[in-house]
Amino acid sequence: MKDKWKKEQHRQRKLAAARLKEERLKRDYEERNADHDYWHYKQTHPGIVIHDLTGFVFDHLTVIVKLAPYISPDGAIKNNRYLCRCNCGDMIKVYGFELTGKRVTSCGCDVQSRKKFKYHNDQEINDDAEWLYRVLSKTK
User: Fold this and answer.
1) Hey, is 127 helix, strand or coil?
2) CA-CA distance, 44 to 38, in Å (whole number)?
């Protein structure tokens, strides 16, 4: 009876250790992936100024390469530009201040999915004049 109890205890300890190791590996993997997220990096490394955003992720955009900065007609160098890949697969050129200021978060694909036609029942109307009248009558 005592041997059975010891074997069961040993088995339980091994299972707990395996579970703990798996959780630790999963947490480390998530932290490593989160380290490429710009906001997570800024939170964990306060006070550090980042001059090159290559490799960082901003919501849907992943920065691929730093492009030549924009030069104004009077010859002044303005802002750094970056080539980014969106989650949908499109490529987009974005200024650095737009990325860090959360002004641009995707290539526009998330805006398209959020934009819905307001009056679904009006889509079935064939007459353009009637459709326009219904739409304008619902606006204030």
Assistant:
1) coil
2) 10
Check if the beta carbon of residue 132 is closer than 8 Å to that of residue 106. no
Domain boundaries defined on the chain: 1-34, 38-107
Distance CA 67, CA 83 (A): 7
Residue 95: Cβ within 10 Å count: 18
Going across the sheet that includes 61-67, the strands are: 57-58, 61-67, 81-86, 91-95
Query: Could you report the per-residue pLDDT of 21-65, keeping only the tens digit for each?
Result: 888 777 766 665 556 778 777 877 778 888 888 888 888 899 999
Other Cβ atoms closer than 10 A to 117: 7
**Is the CB of residue 95 less than 8 Å from the CB of residue 116?**
no
